[in-house]
């Protein structure tokens, strides 16, 4: 187990790398992906050299074996730049895919594919979301995998498959048994790319850009796409359960990243208002309206951090199922802190705030999706409420989270 | 004066043109400006043929002589598409520039330049905003025009000069007398482009795109840029006053446009939720959370519309000075309705909402600036408060707006 | 028809009376109802003498025949004090009851009862709300009136019957035909008080006080309470329809009153911050946080006023049914402006704000109910949404309200 | 040190007492203070018998020596009822006064007065707030204590002196040296009541009630009120410093209490919506608008709890000065969660929510003051911002709170 002091040391080292990434952000803003990927490859080499690669991985996979709450501190630092997670080999959906193959893959998948992903020599994607069915209710999935005796034939359409562009592997979720209970209908398949019958349609233009490489979201069509038993991850019918299991860790990664973004936005806001004259004798930092924004942002950020740390600890100690409500709550709680902080930081920058001379406009548009991906905020609110309305209560002072007791 | 029925008829005709513009929006989203401008030129021809050109202009300028509140109805319809105002020859800053030259230009400017602008054969821009001085306090302006006996030599930097790219004329605000009372320091000059010493630096990348033509915001540098007395608009020292006078009409134009956008977003939200299944038997439209959003959006939109109509009528009847508070209030009131409505419409679209398959993501990112341009919302709130705190009150039942009376 | 100038004159006269009421507010705050009612009777006499009685009534009833939007201006002034409407004979539910009897009462009711109500010599109440059924869905009503051949026998419980304490008449809504279509199940009966089988249980304690006289909300029980055909108002089965018809005018009265309260709160906020030192050289009015609150309150108030005027005009010109959506929208829109403005005015008063040395704490607690009575805000949002989702759209520039047109 | 399990056991025992208090709340709502105090005395006896008295006190004072974060769990339970803290001998300002005398009192004060306060045999109050000077800036204090050689003569007015009614002792803050640096101007005096020249003017009516005994806020006037050196607490000029030192513990007590209130409100909301029919087949709990409120309340409460625990731990481990920003932030963060949760719980109760048949209306009106006492929210936001704008940053992963680092 790592001590708090070791985490601080690691955090400082991560921050140093992230600071050096900032000059490359303009390449992302200008969609110069070829040059960007080349620069990032250089930084990834440095990260490997400095022993900072795969900070989220377990020791068995050659990682640092950090507890989830410890990693969250580092993920915050990485999150300060949209390039951060990628250069540390910690980006979604890669880390989730690695865990999936590690825990549920076949021996062959573990032997041949896993090392490529873990070391960052190849990338993978995860094709679950569909355009015409609500991601919030995966039982509406329409992509079908029909048994043809020896294997399955997949037909259907996926979209918002992150990082499919240039990926060497794709994990596909498809309904194998439409007559089964809702959460046992689907299965997961891992196929190398390209694969017959799997068509890359486009990188979807999101907030004005199609993106590229790991910074993209693809539309994929499956037409008579044949997969064999060797492509299966887990067992038939395990699809939802395995996808669900990703969510806990994934949520912490995302939320810590959002906190990193919000913290950077707050830092930029403080810097801006200190330097911005609003009269011949005053700067914007003397406005108590602006100060109230800074105070509110700081409080929101602190609460968000504590909430994420708390949730990470429950996952670490008792598993994701025990933290189900917390995992749902940080989704919308932290996303709100993120949006509010970025929005106000942008506002204090005036016209510069909407320009690409600063990163704030990028955060503003790209992270709007935080309220949507992995299920819209509203779905998580409803799920928490459902759980509370069902619960019978009980006092648990060892857990600071929600405990409902007999009402009046 | 036009009857309400005539306005309805005009509005229906404007709507028909705007509906036909929608297919060209994808060219804007993909930044294919050459093809876009060509298509728009065709629509502009149709608009001229159908007698719908220059709906905001007075009869003397060959326009329809619509009252401002009447025009606001049409501007709503144009506003439904980001291409709307341009094809009708009603886009900012052109209409403001036309009014300026018409009322304050020299005879020669009126004779030679005005017709080009009025008919849309040439475009113009308005260079006021500077990067390092708060637009909210124009007395901080640093661009200087120093007299050299016969004329003036301008040095300084401007940015967010909308539509400078491809413009044939530029109106420049520069400080001619730094020692004068704050609001008499600056003057306006109208110069044809290109002009020696006036350097086009770049189209500023805004929310990910540099834009192009009328859909762009430029950075301009002035180095020893010489202008003569024939370039002056109004008198020396009139700069702020004339710029201020633009604001009333401009505000109505902007706010009506924002209402058009918000209305389209609400329409899209209604369409989306009606068609989106959230279970095997229910659509999103049956959610009373979504319905509460629709109810709130409708109320906000109705209030916004009434507020803009009310303000337009005061300007029309009593002039912009009489409507000073209202002009300030609609700025932030309507911008809030706009942001809230677009945000929720986007949210109900899920992943599709952040994609460019729909126009909502464009509105979300582009119209964030509504809270910033022409002075950030906060500045307008403060200015209204200042006016209220100063006023002595009085009851005026003929005016539904704010009236402060003797407090307890 | 009254000219705007005449409305202004009336408004000034109403204001003068209301100003003289303010000293009596402390009697209300201290629940000294006997003394309060005596003082108010004196003011009512003055109001009658000055010809300001019954400003909301039609000429046939001896009133001024003001259009509803004209009256709304006066109701704002009355609304500045919680005592205002009562001294002008314009309080709820009296004015609604008077209209009801006037339009639907029997000749005998009109001859014997109406004059007492119109002149304020007797008071009446309206018993509809029930504790255990959602007021938002009147089809759940449980109070039954069973026919016994000659008349009906009423059994059931009502609560929040405003002003039942000391009332001479009670209008009761009871289900006469539970098997009829939902909106034809109930009927209205007008009975003099006391009446056998009608038990006055208590004045309900609301926000800490049971109130008294017209300033109270009672719980009434009906046990074998017999009413004859002569007590019926309207026809059997007309109950919901007639209750619904009250809503339009009643909503305007309430909303105008709320605006009056909010305006007074804003006036008090301006007065307070101007006089409150926060350092040796500054007052609270120099804080731009406080100023942003004043700006937002002024904008909200102006929008609320315009919205109410607009709705009143539609009711006046086209009837309540045509204004259905507007009547629903002003309910929650104006209630939000009210709550926000009172809350911030209170906050700027510090500890004095929660004390009863100022009226703000009274407004804060008493007007919380604005979000609840006549149906909670949420129900109105849903009803507007339902109507919008159903509508087919169409452009109507003569009406500034919501118009939905063919979405993309 | 107490184990988490012991805290849970204590918490369960505290809850049991609080549950038995609920029937007496109606006496508070009806202002029957004589009967209320008698009932509460009985419960206090039980609390003493069960060894639950003075849970917030150190072992030296006969308390349990709980760490502050441990006590916060118990304070939540006490907070569920407005009567809770009093029956456990943990109410403000008593516990703060006890700490003050314990740490800074003279030997005689400690010997003669402290035991009376600690055991609850006598009550005390703390007279700091003044009507005409902003509590947020104590350097504006006007109450003066002028030296007369042997002692001091106090002149001035205090208000909102909580629990002065019936108190046996009063701690007074007065300016002893107006020429000193701002924070060294005032001193504290402890006098027994009654005392010559100290006039009890009134219990201030707050939100409709003057209250009584420990549930009251008094106005006190000092006219030539003489105090001797034996009345001093601490040293001359220590007044602000000692008052400031109370704030850390006091804030945790208040915030934990607010969380208890909010939790009870959420419990009541869940109970209400489960039982409330909105149609013949549905209850309010099936509305996803209501569910989104429950989800948001649960998230807010969890974040609030974590924030308070976090702050209590810093105070416990590093002292109040180290937690200065956190102490400021929980003030407004938790107060917002409180207000939002109580408001929505009330709203789901409909008319019953504003009635005194439920405790929600009491919480709604009484706890409005949470945004005001101990300095209005806004002042705390500004103070946090000031601190952040001044700080130079640095990474501290062992502390989840705000850490500012070098911005871009």
3D structure, described in words:
The structure is a homotetramer of 408-residue chains. By secondary structure, the first copy, chain A, is α+β, with helices and mostly antiparallel strands. The first copy, chain A, has 3 domains: 4-105, Butyryl-Coa Dehydrogenase, subunit A, domain 1; 124-233, Butyryl-CoA Dehydrogenase, subunit A, domain 2 (Beta Barrel); 241-390, Up-down Bundle (Butyryl-CoA Dehydrogenase, subunit A, domain 3), CATH 1.20.140.10. Chain A is 48% helix and 13% strand. Chain A contains 13 helices and 8 strands. Chain A is globular.
Radius of gyration of chain A: 22 Å
Share of β-strand residues of chain A:
5-15%
Helix % of chain A is: 40-55%
**Main sheet strand line-up of chain A:** 1-4-5-8
| CATH top level assignment of the largest domain in chain A | Mainly Alpha
CATH homology superfamily name of the largest domain in chain A: Butyryl-CoA Dehydrogenase, subunit A, domain 3
CATH architecture of the largest domain in chain A: Up-down Bundle
Oligomer: homotetramer
Average pLDDT taken over every residue of chain A: 93
Give the tally of structural domains of chain A: 3
The CATH topology of the largest domain in chain A turns out to be: Butyryl-CoA Dehydrogenase, subunit A, domain 3
- The shape of chain A is globular
